[in-house]
Amino acid sequence: MQNPGLKRRKIRALLIISILLLLIYAKNLIERQSFQSISSTFTEVYNDRLVVEGYIFQISEHLFQIQKLVDHCNLDYDYSRVVDEIEGHENRILAIVEDFEATNLTTQEGEYLGDFKEIIVDDLSIKSYDLLYNDQQGINVEQVKLYDQKISQARLDLDNLSKIQMEEGEKLISKAKVLINRSQIWAQFEVALLIILIVVMFLLVFRKSEETKGMIS
Q1: 138 in the Ramachandran plot: left (φ > 0), alpha (ψ -120 to 50) or beta?
Q2: In terms of CB atoms within 10 Å, which of 29, 47, 175, 213 comes out highest?
Q3: CA 43, CA 103: separation in Å to the nearest integer?
Q4: Do residues 96 and 59 lie in contact, with contact meaning Cβ atoms separated by under 8 Å?
């Protein structure tokens, strides 16, 4: 007949082993979610921050070309097609803005981007070359200054958008670091659980063999 004390110890040991296994399983589920969050965070850094910074750079280049055409910087340039060229740069800017709008925008980004888009569509749309230049008076200095002011305002919106990319990127990197540190803690916790599990199983087997020897002797 089995010793009641031995039976209780077995039940207690099996209970401890079951709890440890459940804890290890729960830890693995948590760690899997953590890795998914880390992956999602780095994807967001790339898609919504690094790629967007590229959009801002491309927009700045087109804006620079518009300003050159508006200011008549190149005296040897044929300005007979200037309105069409400005419109072409504006259309390319708006196409990039559309891609920009498809990213995960913060509230501030939405405001700056909306203001920027409004400037391109409403304030920099030049319908006639006479607004910039005519044969009698030459360059329309006042109108050119007005366009330059609007371009400066658009550049300010771009600068603010670029700053947001840096700030949000730093936040995402910090979040990833927290998740990685947490994952390392959980890994150490799992090692501790495995050590405890091994000790419990060793004690269970060792005591069983000792008691079996005692019964035989």
Answers
A1: left
A2: 175
A3: 12
A4: yes
